[in-house]
Amino acid sequence: MTTGRRRPGRTAEDTGPDPAGAPPPLDGRCAALLGELAADARVLGWSEGVHLRTEYLTARNAVVRHLVEWHAVRAIAAETNFALSRPTDAYIRGLGPDEPTPAAVIGMWSWSRTPLPDNRALLRWLRRHNTTLHPARHVRFYGLEMYGTAPEEPGGAPRHTVLDDPVDRPHAAHLHRLRVEHRASGGDHRDLAVRDAAQYLTLQEVARRHPDGRILLFEQVEHLDRRVTGSLGAHLARQELGRFRAVGAVWRDGDPTVRYPLGRYRDLSRRLHDLTKAGPADAADAPAPLTGSAGSVVFDLRPWQPTTADKSPAARPDAPLVDTATAFDAVLYTPTLSPAGHIR
User: Fold this and answer.
1) CB-neighbour burial class of residue 12 (10 A; exposed 0-12, middle 13-18, buried 19+)
2) Where is the signal peptide (predicted)?
């Protein structure tokens, strides 16, 4: 890690050389920013702008590692099917073979038709990390979705396996009933408010199971946006589960590899591009590099939040930052994206 402190309870083995494939350490300034956000957060959201991009998955892996090692994250929840995520959770708890099965890897993001190597690498690291902990303190993984099965929505519920935790089965059955009812009424996975209501239901269950420690969410940016009606972020903004902090994500406007529209994030992307190229006059306001590679940076949006933002005419160029600061506490900007690899 880039900090000089050793977290209480870390062993000499924990601080030794990283094994091959381990998530990269965060840049020191990015680590400090995440530490400030995590300090008072019960739930911390980390976004990707679009799916299946190497840079977002690399960023996620580095953030997961940092928050697990240094900030008492005990549960990781993601935009993946709850029932299909149970082999993933079983694997990182040390159950089953040493190498993750395709089901365990796909369960980390069940929308994918094939397993992703970035997901496999993170699962290996989480399993290795959990071997240093008492089972009661293991990091756990949960999918939040009632949708999210690949390659197509099957008619029946996923079959249980010997590795399933029996306490998961009633909730998996409940989500399956909700999905069947929603599809029978003509709905599908594009109904964000319905999907995210089910995700919030699952997150409440995760919070109940983990009354101590922090919960880390990994979602596509719109799901964590407090401004989007019915989104998971809007539910969490009520703070019924405790303080919610979130980091958004955008990509460069005009990136030829992305067909998904920037939409409401276009002006923000353009402003972040300008700030990244020009560099701020005050070095203290400089964006924090993520891992020292790939050009990804994290902008702290807290100076533009309503209690501190400058409302004078001079602040107009930063209007996209002021607007976005009502939704997120920071934002990840990635100027270059590349397709994620697949395990064949």
Assistant:
1) exposed
2) none
Helix/strand/coil (H/E/C) assignment for every residue in 183-217: HHCCCCCCCHHHHHHHHHHHHHHHHHHCCCCEEEE
Q: State residue 306's pLDDT score.
A: 79
- Residue 307: phi and psi, rounded to 5, are -75, -20
Structure tokens at 181: 């009812």
DSSP state, residue 339:
B
Tally of helices (H runs) and strands (E runs) in the chain: 11, 8
- Over the chain (344 residues), what is each successive 10-residue block's mean pLDDT? 36 54 91 96 97 94 97 96 95 96 94 91 97 96 89 53 78 94 95 97 97 96 98 98 98 93 96 82 66 81 78 68 96 93 75
Beta strands in 122-259 (DSSP E): 140-145, 214-220, 244-251
Calpha distance 95→13 (Å, rounded): 22
- Orientation of helix 192-209 relative to helix 168-184, angle to 10°: 170
Distance CA 43, CA 63 (A): 14
